[in-house]
Amino acid sequence: MRFMRWLVLAFAMVVSPGLATADTYPSRPIKLIVPFPPGGPNDIIARVVAQRMSELLGQTVVIDNRGGAGGVVGTDAVAKAAPDGYTIGICSAGALAISASLVEKVPYDATKDLTAITLVASVPELLVVPAQFPAKDFKELVAMAKAQPGKLNFGSSGPGSMPHLAGELLKINANINIIHVPYRGAAPAVNDLLGGQVQMVFLDTPVLLPHIQAGKMRALAVAAKERAPSVPDVPTMGELGLASVDAENWYGMVAPANLPKDILDKLYKTTAEALKHPDVISKLAPQGAKLGGNKPEEFAAYIKSEIAKWAKVVEVSGARGQAQ
To answer: What pTM did the predictor assign?
Structure first.
C-alpha cells in the first residue's frame, strides 16, 4: 500500500510539476534585471539587496544591467520573461509609473504584464551643480536661468525618469526655460555634469553623495517634503518656496505576470527579510534610502496610484519622452 501511495504521488509530480515548486524553488541562479547601467542608484540598491537574497535563498542572484529609455528597455525584458521566478527585476518609478503617460508606445502595461512583489526603496532627488559653477545657491541658479533662457541644460537618467519629471516641475514652478538632456542612466549623467556638458542634474541621493562629499558637486535643493539626513544642510524645495517640486524616486521588485503564488510568496518574504537585515540597512540608509517591504497587493495598488499621480504632472508640464 505504501508503495502504491508513493507511485501515485510520483506520477502526480511528473504530470503536474507545479505541485513541487514550493519546495524546489530556486534550484538554479536567479537573474535580477537592473534597467540602468552599472554605477547608478538603481544598480547600487539592487546589488546590496541581491547579495543578501542570495544568502537567504541559497542560490546566486545575478545582476543583469539592461539600460535604455529611462528604464523601459530593462523593464520590458522582465515583462517578456518566463513567469518561473528565474527572471525578476528591481525597476524604477519612471519605468513602472511615469512612462505610462510620458513615453509613446511603452511595450508593456505595468499593471497587467508584471507581478508586483514589493517596494524596495525610495530616495529623494537632489538638485546639484558642479563645484565650480558660478551660481552658489538655488536663488542664484534661478536668476541665472531667467537671465539666459534656453541656455542652461539639466541632465537626467532618461526620458520618463523621476529626475526628468523633477526638472520639468522645476521649470514650471520656477518659471525658467532650461533644456532637458536625457542619458541612459544616472552614471553617464553624472560624468557629463562633472565634465561640464550639462550645468545641473536632478538625481537620486546615493549616486551623488560620493561626489558631494569629495567636493566635486554642490547640492542646492532636495525635491522632497523633508530634508535628507545624508545632506542635512541642504534645504527642501518647499523651504525655497517651491513645495510643488516634490519628486521622491522609488524602486520596486517585479516579475513577469502570472507568477505562481508560491514563488511570489517566497520572493516577497525573501526580499522583505533582506531589507530588514542590518547589513543592508547599514549600506543603504546612510545614502538616503528609505527601505520598503510592503506586501505584493499593497505595492500593486501603489503602482496604480503613482501612474495616476504622474499622469497629471505630465499633462500640466507638457513633458515628452522618446517613442519606443
So the answer is: 0.83
Per domain, the residue ranges of the chain are 2-123+250-317, 124-222
Number of neighbours of residue 41 by Cβ within 10 angstroms? 29
- For 51, the grid coordinates are 547579495
As assigned by CATH, the class of the 124-222 domain is alpha beta
CATH architecture classification, 2-123+250-317: 3-Layer(aba) Sandwich (3.40)
Q: Are 144 and 316 in contact (CB under 8 A)?
A: no
Query: pLDDT truncated to tens, each residue of the chain (324 aa)?
Result: 444 444 444 444 444 444 445 579 999 999 999 999 898 889 999 999 999 999 999 999 999 999 988 899 999 999 999 999 999 999 999 999 998 887 778 999 999 999 999 999 999 899 999 999 999 999 999 999 999 999 999 999 888 789 999 999 999 999 999 999 999 888 899 999 999 999 999 999 888 999 999 999 999 999 998 899 889 999 999 999 999 999 989 999 999 999 999 999 999 999 999 999 999 999 999 888 999 999 999 999 999 999 998 898 888 777 765 433
